[in-house]
Amino acid sequence: MPDHLPVTLHDIYLARRRIAGQVTRTPLIRSHMLSTRFAAEVYLKLETLQPTGAFKLRGATNKIAALTPEQLERGVTTASTGNHGRAVAYAASRSGVRAIICMSALVPHNKVEAIEALGAETRIIGHSQDEAFVEARRLVAQEGMTLIEPFDDPLIVAGQGTIGLELLEDLPELDHVLIGLSGGGLLGGIGRAVKVINPAVHVTGVSMQEGAAMRMSLEAGQPVEVEEVTTFADSLGGGIGLDNRCTFTLVREVMDDSYAVSEAAIARAMVHFFAHEKMVVEGAAAVGLAALEEHCLDIRGRTVALIVSGNGVSSETFMDAWRVAHTASH
């Protein structure tokens, strides 16, 4: 593994020390049904059990814990309506730090209220996420706040990488891990940890078929812009930044292969988790299972972990997935 990569195993161990007591060490459970179906040992890493319902809390907590007293005094900001915004709000509140989460006027009021309930201030700006980010960057430039990036920051990646440490401590015989691929913070962090400890572990990234910025950037050999599309795996949407500093290089080095999955496959996997594992998960959390099923991946006799990354799904979206899965099976 090249020494020049922006996140080291040491960084990940430091992250674990910083976040201890603030982030849940999530359970790793064996799925009897999936193990039987695939003739393998299939385990589920349940990041859905974080206090905010998703893995993002690890990176946000590590970043905030690493700030200087002066930075903490000036507060933190970001632009996000989903798992990252919730994570920043929660982590900042736990640390007694002022947080402003910038959102557009299109964000439903219940999402705004949910972030405010975690202790953050909200600022409604413009009619797009891009316009909200302009306000976040203004707060950085004019008020000295620190921007908590959603993924392209070594401290964020190191925080997510603590999942990799837990995986190999709880399951030293791990052969293969499947991880949702978006901006690359989750896959880059986990992949960096497991590859340094055991280079034989196979790291697979999974994204939706359309709007997969990291996969298309890797194919192009450089970061590219990708149009966002509606998908059940909405947490995997968005770009990686044309000036990407960290995750593009990291994912390119630690990922062994990647797969794109259809909306029907994502829907079927979401329904499986509900019907057979008794879990409500978002589409991005189900893509590992979707890849195993849709691409008929041969994992017989292997020990495999699926990263169940978050539970941020509305009842309306879940019912849509149920209808698609039911239609696709007939």
Detail the topology: elements first, then pairings.
Layout: H1 9-19, E1 28-30, H2 32-38, E2 41-46, H3 56-65, H4 69-74, E3 76-79, H5 83-95, E4 99-103, H6 109-117, E5 121-124, H7 129-143, E6 146-147, H8 154-170, E7 176-180, H9 185-197, E8 202-208, H10 213-220, H11 247-254, E9 257-261, H12 263-276, H13 287-294, E10 303-308, H14 315-328
Helix pairs in contact: 1-3, 1-8, 3-5, 3-8, 8-9, 9-11, 12-13, 12-14
Explain the overall architecture.
This protein has 330 residues and is an alpha/beta fold. It has 2 domains: 9-54 and 153-328, Rossmann fold (3-Layer(aba) Sandwich), CATH 3.40.50; 76-144, Rossmann fold, CATH 3.40.50.1100. The protein has helices spanning 9-19, 32-38, 56-65, 69-74, 83-95, 109-117, 129-143, 154-170, 185-197, 213-220, 247-254, 263-276, 287-294, 315-328; strands at 28-30, 41-46, 76-79, 99-103, 121-124, 146-147, 176-180, 202-208, 257-261, 303-308. α12 packs across α14 (315-328).
Form type: globular
Largest sheet: 6 strands, mixed
Q: Tell me the helix content.
A: 40-55%
Structural class: alpha/beta
Side by side, the strands of the main sheet go 1-2-10-7-8-9
Q: What fold name stands as the CATH topology of the largest domain?
A: Rossmann fold
State the CATH class of the largest domain: Alpha Beta
Tell me which CATH architecture of the largest domain applies here.
3-Layer(aba) Sandwich
Keywords:
single chain; 330 residues; alpha/beta; Rossmann fold; 2 domains; six-stranded mixed beta sheet; four-stranded parallel beta sheet; 46% helix; globular
